Request: fold
Amino acid sequence: MELSERPRRLRRTPVLRSLARETRLSPRALIWPLFIVEGQGIRREIPSLPGQYHYSPDKLPAAVEEALAAGVSAFLLFGLPALKDELGSGAYDPNGVVQQGLRLLRERFPHILLITDVCMCEYTSHGHCGILHGHEVDNDATLPYIAKIALSHAQAGADIVAPSDMMDGRVAAIRRTLDNNSYSHIPILSYAVKYASAFYGPFRDAAGSAPAFGDRKGYQMDPHNVREALREAALDVREGADMLMVKPAMSYLDVVHAVRERFDLPLAAYSVSGEYAMIKAGAQAGLIDEYAILCESALSVFRAGADIYITYYAKELAQAIQKGDIG
Ligand code: PBG
Reply:
């Protein structure tokens, strides 16, 4: 048969395929989320996230060592305080769990990258991401708290702060507060495009952060929208965001792509708890091959245009990349 084009030529052997790849992955692009709890000697598996753990601050170094051995050196820290209150005061307590974890890790591992989730829902008694006014989250009353949390993270040693509350104007509020307190060098990774998603379910069990009433649809984005995502991203860029994030990842790859096309800032995508839990459950039921699926889904996120990938599978992925199974 006379065929001038035969795409199969470049697929014939593993070395050919790996030479002709369009998407390259690196462990340096991966971020592993860690959950810090109050106490000592705790490394407890999270029932809704098999294979992920609650760590007391003293147990964090071992987790970081594991990650470093796999090639992952960037971490996103979440805190579960012992006590919650109306104002989420545990979030900006200089001795809060995240602040303790930051100080300890900063001293032990000067070269790792410590990113903190800046939000209130894990710390408030009502589980909402801000200060309540009646049954509504009061946007403007929340901003000073969000800024205060970010500052306390920077003071405890965070390299990057990542606000996930979805209040309007929070990036500007954080930027101003950091700048006024000699932290103008600390970047903001904005959860610019965060949807009101059912994929956060297992996280809310893990963090005890489900809202006590109502939902988050009044501040997180409507999953029907993509033009609104560009508007959110544009606002955050204008307010001084250094990096953008789209979250969740897997059901929002069109959004990752759209944000990539429009903006030049480094772009992160977050494969959230529900994405991880579904792969785990499918594999446990013997329905899918966990390793192959985690590799293929990670690939799709980078192919869509993400530069940075936040995933509970960070260690496994880093190993897969190093083995040459993907990337
Ligand atoms: C805090 C926050 C959430 C997640 C990250 N930061 C929960 C939420 O918005 O309800 C979800 C992460 C995940 O599901 O893995 N606001």
Remarks:
- The chain has one domain: 23-323.
- The mean pLDDT is 97.
